[in-house]
Amino acid sequence: MAAAEAAVGSSSSLKTDTVPVPESAGTAAATAATSSATAAAAAVAAAVRTGSEARVSKPALATKLLSLSGVFAVHKPKGPTSAELLNRLKEKLLAEAGMPSPEWTKRKKQTLKIGHGGTLDSAARGVLVVGIGKGTKMLTNMLSGSKRYIAIGELGKATDTLDSTGKVTEEKPYDKITQEDIEGILQKFTGNIMQVPPLYSALKKDGQRLSTLMKRGEAVEAKPARPVTVYSLSLQKFQPPFFTLDVECGGGFYIRSLVSDIGKELSSCANVLELTRTKQGPFTLEEHALPEDKWTIDDIAQSLEHCSSLLPGELALKKSKPEESNEQMLSCQRTRRTSRSDD
């Protein structure tokens, strides 16, 4: 809209210099005629200006979209996978920018890169960190950084996915388990520990996700236990068979595995009923995660500006000049960071 605003400013500042003359009937008539002509010219200019704004608004938005660079957060609801949500975000931005449009198709390609910094399962909700432009290069740091979750577990039932979306594979009594029992074992799962990832996960075997292989009915061996870190773990509520945990952990940690292991430690079994990621790195659900109605070019630009101050100095991106997108076509490339899932 910058070009349009410049056009508006230029046309609105135009003025006609007049030389004072003695008042007479002739001059009055001439003045009236001049006024009428000026009014007509102004009307034409306004019409041209409006049309010009309509023509340049989409290219201007595309220019702004291509200039976006950095890391921000969105609010992922329950339902879509992280990849599906990223596609939805991408489509909304392209539609707002009117891209791709026929007038750009014959010109040089310009790629819009967008990716996320850590898979959040379809059944989970919460903070999903997104990188756009050069910000996609910062996503590795998001994967390895700390995350915080609120998880509701259900005692007495085990499932093949370790959460409520899976098939029940085992049921055990839980009626003798107390709040003190749960609190007493949490220390075993705090600090640097070893954890076996779930079979249904984004981890890969021969280039394919384990979850994809499992859904096909193929035999999949569990990955070996690996070192993970839990910074803090506390019981927030216990109302049998449900218990609520507040967990802060490092990258590569699976909440589903934690809840399942807690059930086993209590001589029962358990699965995740609900999961919310409340924080990822410096991004919090309440303060930084954009809801879908805020997935606009302007809102994301403002969020990038705000979130740049949250990142360490060595990771913060310097503002780059907008791409010369008026002479280039916008295409899309999604950068996926899914080798490490944390739920």
TrEMBL record:
Gene3D superfamilies referenced in this protein's UniProt entry, alphabetically: Pseudouridine synthase
Residue numbers spanned by region Disordered: 1-21, 319-343
Xref: Pfam families: TruB_N (PF01509)
EC number, UniProt record: 5.4.99.25
Biased composition, class Basic residues, residue ranges: 334-343
Domain called Pseudouridine synthase II N-terminal: residue spans: 106-255
Composition skew (Low complexity), residue ranges: 1-13
Residues in coiled coil: none
Top-level division of the source organism's lineage: Eukaryota
Database matches in InterPro entries: PsdUridine_synth_cat_dom_sf, PsdUridine_synth_N, tRNA_psdUridine_synth_TruB
Keyword Isomerase attributed: yes
Keywords, in A-Z order: Isomerase, tRNA processing
UniProt cross-references to HAMAP family, sorted A to Z: TruB_bact (MF_01080)
Family to which the UniProt record says this protein belongs: Belongs to the pseudouridine synthase TruB family.
Protein's recorded name: tRNA pseudouridine(55) synthase
Protein species of origin: Vicugna pacos (Alpaca)
